[in-house]
Amino acid sequence: MSVPTREELPSLPRDEEEPVFKEPWEAQAFAITLRLYDGKHFTWPEWAECLAVEIEAAQQAGDPDLGDTYYHHWLKALEKIVARKGLLSANELSRRKDAWDRAARTTPHGAPIKLGPNN
């Protein structure tokens, strides 16, 4: 997977030259995005535009843009581009989000979150 450069995503939180993640889900959302990009499901300019729209909408809604909400915008953009490209239907995306939410709430702290066959 190719990691975006500072020029491609200037606001991406980084430490030296590598992306930094405060929570495991941030790294997972990042990795999913890169995997979909590498699979040619969208171009990098398409992704950057989708993310920029999400960040702008959040700022317009009052997000002070302190960097702590960056991956929330990233995840929203990822959900939108996946739906727009027809990779998952809105219903399937909602079902998967609900499954992850249920699994996260029932998983003991520190244990890996696992989805069962009915999720």
Structure description:
The chain has about 120 residues and is mainly α. The protein has a domain at about 25-60 and about 70-105. Helix content is about 55%, strand content about 5%. The chain has helices spanning about 25-40, 45-60, 70-85, 90-105; strands at about 15, 20. It has a two-stranded antiparallel ribbon with strand order 1-2. The longest helix is centred in the middle third of the chain and has 17 residues, at about 45-60. The protein starts with 13 loop residues before the first strand and ends in a 13-residue tail after the last helix.
Summarize the structure.
This protein is mainly α and 119 residues long. The protein has four helices and two strands, in the order E-E-H-H-H-H.
Total number of β-strand segments? 2
Percent range for β-strand residues? under 5%
Share of helix among residues? Answer: 40-55%
Uncertain spans = none
Q: Note the gap between the termini.
A: 28 Å
Largest sheet, described in full? 2 strands, antiparallel
| C-alpha Rg (nearest Å) | 15 Å
| Count of alpha/pi helices | 4
Rounded mean pLDDT score:
84
Structural category: mainly alpha
Strand order of the largest sheet: 1-2
What labels would you give this structure?
mainly alpha, 3% strand, 119 residues, two-stranded antiparallel sheet
List the helices and strands and how they pair.
Elements: E1 14-15, E2 18-19, H1 24-38, H2 44-60, H3 70-84, H4 90-106
Antiparallel strand pairs: 1-2
Helix pairs in contact: 1-3, 2-3
